[in-house]
Design a protein that fits this description.
Elements: H1 3-21, H2 24-43, H3 48-84
Amino acid sequence: MNDTLRMLEKLLMVIHGELRNRDPVWTDLAYSREMAHERFLRAYQDDKVLISAVIELIDAHDRVTAHEAEVDFLLGLQMGLELGQLDFLRGIDAFP
């Protein structure tokens, strides 16, 4: 990945974080996730092997989700660049 794409990706992460923090749906989902996490830890606090396995599973899922988001961003960026090159209105008088 080149420096420009890295810069755009970092910018997207900042903007995404700002938007996410103002999104009531995201806030509710994040709260529900935290409550479920706390309930799980309380219910299985003595089973360190299970807790470790579940955390490993969640981490693996998060890595896949993060990669999917990066691929989606790059595909969207590529589509935008390619659509920006279209010149299908040339020669139409209404669009000089």
